[in-house]
Amino acid sequence: VREMQLCTAMLNYHASTRERIPQLSEFYEAIFNITGKPSSILDLACGLHPFGFPWMKLPELKEYHAFDLHKPRTRLLQTYFDHLSMEAIAHHQDILINLPEEYADMAFLFKESHRMEKREKDCSARLWDALNVEWLIVTLPAVSLHQGHDLREKHNNLLGNLLTKTNTHWERVDIEVNKELIYCLHKTR
Fold it and tell me: Do 77 and 26 form a contact (C-beta atoms < 8 A)?
């Protein structure tokens, strides 16, 4: 119970994770109903998302790699992982410059692709091609942060456009939980 309270408090520090708190269990359940439960995860541009781990319900998880640009955050996450005795590493790494090389069953890229595209056009497609994963879970907001504008069409178009620029064939399943668009992308050979 104390761990869940601590994790909830940490998730509350950032707007994108705070929005997800009321439906965390439903969020992961919806993803894993499509993909199955992974035994290894790359959490890309993770922010505070790893504090959602208790809601993932992944007793068979063997490896977890969290990547973030913010060094104090990666130190905090590594302390958290060590406390849980998880086989997890927090990487201080710019994933657009140093592409992740680790293999995993699944990669998470939550509410970041639209921001990354502002930094460098089509960089998401390059990143997705480089990932050594079976599943890539990309999420984008369905509405603007202050609930003012519907972003579904814009973000569906963004994702579709990026997929046309990849060299990898991804099968796509779209779902939505609590105004978060979830794109479950399965790499096909």
Answer: no
Contact indicator for 111, 16 with CB cutoff of 8 Å:
yes
- Number of other residues whose CB lies within 10 A of the CB of residue 150: 12
Q: Can you name the residues that pair with 87 across neighbouring β-strands? A: none
What is the model's pTM?
0.95
Q: Which helix (H) or strand (E) holds 81?
A: helix 71-84
Half-sphere exposure of 21 (CA within 13 A, CB side): 18
- For the record, the structure tokens of 143 come out as 């509405």
Could you report the per-residue pLDDT of 78-119, keeping only the tens digit for each? 999 999 888 999 999 999 999 999 999 999 999 999 999 999
Residues 6+ away with beta carbon under 8 Å from 150:
142, 143
Give me the amino acid identity at 166.
T
How many helices and strands, by DSSP H and E, does the chain display? 8, 7
The tens digit of pLDDT for each residue in 15-46 reads 878 888 889 999 999 999 999 999 999 999 99
